[in-house]
Specification:
By secondary structure, the protein is an alpha/beta fold. Helix content is 18%, strand content 29%. The chain has seven helices and 26 strands. It has a six-stranded mixed beta sheet, with no helix packed on it. It has a six-stranded mixed beta sheet with strand order 16-13-17-21-20-18, sandwiched between helices. Helix 3 packs parallel to helix 6. The longest helix is centred in the C-terminal third of the chain and has 19 residues. It starts with 18 loop residues before the first helix and ends in a 7-residue tail after the last strand. The N terminus is likely disordered.
Length: 431
Amino acid sequence: MIEKQPSCEDDREPALLPVSEARRRLIASLQAVSDVIEVPVADGLYRVLAEDIVSPVDVPPQANSAMDGYALHRDSIPSSGETRLQVVGTAWAGKPFNEQVCTGQAVRIFTGGIMPAGCDTVVIQEHVRCTAGSTDEMTSIDIDADVIAGKNVRQAGEDVAVGQRVLPRGRQLHAADIGVLASLGIARVPVVRPLKVAFFSTGDELCALDEHEPGSTLAPGKLFDSNRYTMAALLRGLHVEVTDLGIVRDNEADTRDALLRASSDADVVISSGGVSAGDADFVTRVFHEVGQVSFWKLAMRPGRPLAYGQIGKSAFFGLPGNPVAVMVTFLEFVQPALKHLAGMHDLDTPVFPARCLSTLRKSPGRVEYQRGIMRLDDQGELVVESTGKQGAGRLSSMSAANCLIVIASEADGVQAGDRVQVQPFHGLLPG
């Protein structure tokens, strides 16, 4: 009888590390980058704040009108019926009315205009009756008891108060954040320096696109290297500094040279392929020699042969060679690790409950990440269905999907109609 060794075809393999424990070890082993640089606020998009941002000013700086209308004091509002107010001037945005306004008076005011002294209420222009003088200039308005005291006024500091923490350390800046910073008069922001990431693919069978003559046929056994282009695109979305080391051929010397060269400068080194237990899996062999292995085989599918640890001062991820497994392991492990290294606190990917429309095959023992298409049905319920066959080499199924269907380790398949957890690519795939 053949004594079979553990493999990725096994439903249960006691030596496999649970995904939750692997994530715990991963984050616990990483120390966030402490190097801080200052950049112009216009260049701050997608950078990670290295310090809390505290407002140096009130926003808005003075009480101002939220509408076009007339500024007045609440004591001028009649308790019943109507009353007439004298219009004594105009307050424009950027050109205030600088005189005291008394009871029985009003000032024409436009949106953003500073509230004149003595005014605490704005009545919109559609709710007054205007009376013009001999020069056709407005001399008075009539208002009624329906005017609400204090309405249509933006108070000083209503949006942001001086001394208020506006943005926390560890926040990745997005477009609205850039606008907030500019509104506070902050021209430069302290951010974490970009992470340095080196990556490469392994395999004698791989052919780079720039080495292939367009229109020619690949030699038998050769494949186009898709993994390196996938990794480059995923890393570009995370706004890190990348070094593409190309394709490393299947031999121990080249593999060792690539790992040592990459780890000499990069914060993170990522490879794809060569991490199983075969004779040609040189990444596994060399990593165990030159690095400190934290974990190697995980209870997940796809992505069982995921190697992680340290080579010198660099974190190393040896991703599987199958294209879908590359994407899944990147999203589930590499992406949160890079966020943690950059000082970000929000590492969890969004997960939502959905009703599955497909029957999904699975055996207990591993977490499975199957490709799915999620949508809202006619009743507004979130539903998901499989993209079809789930082989780890079917990269087109990842392109067709918009989410991962996450099936718990203990689950024994999914029946149509069952509730499942989905991770949408929006917010999961970097961009």
